[in-house]
Amino acid sequence: MPFQIWGLFRLCGFFSGCDASVLLEGPNTERRARTNTGLHGFDAIDAAKRAVENACPGVVSAADVLQFAARDAVVLAGGYGWHVPAGRRDGTVSIMEEALNLPAPSMTVSQLIDVFGRKGLSPSQMVVLSGAHTIGKAPCVTFDDRVQTTPVDPTLAPSFATFLKGQCPYAAIQSTSVDMDSTAHTFDSQYFKDIIAGRGLLTSDQSLLYDSRTSGGVYANNGAAFYRNFAKAMVKMSQIEVLTGLDGEIRRQFDQVNSH
Predict the structure, then answer these.
(1) Is the pTM of the predicted complex or chain greater than 0.85?
(2) How far apart are CA 116 and CA 201, in angstroms?
């Protein structure tokens, strides 16, 4: 369950901000976008929101519940915790097309720096936050550009390329997924170790090693420093385009806009 909740949180900030819009149910919401079909963990967020709503109705937003759940998911998976600034309000709009703002697995470093930069995040913070790929899986189709070519991507370690070809023998497979690092159920710095060894899964992962703007960050987070750096970057990311004051609302139900 920790990595399922974490998958939900990784979307924070790249759509309309950290306003829990990804939780909203509906036919044309972010939740229904093709890029989000693999999201899980909604039941856990629902249970947490119901619990706080029973204890203090109308006080804690779904956006804050998601923030606390993401922090706890990281801790349960082996990472460090961090202080979560609270007080966010929930968005009332969720648009499927905005899911296209999520960084794509085939992005270059320049594209990643631009996408994260537009959200106020530095290249070094982008590298640290990319370490979120230490948990979870990715479908074969997300790295077709690396293994379904002749020859395969030369930055892949030969043994890893052989393994990926075995898991994904032809292009466009969406039903099979591969671990995003070699300890994919544990929150650790293995993601960066794998990149250094030529075992980064996605183009957007492995390319971090070969750009002078990001390679130093890969090596700098190849150990215990990652946990501290990640916690700091998460606080920064959690403050992207939040709703406060009279903006938005405090949802009574985590996946539905209030009916007044």
Answers:
(1) yes
(2) 20
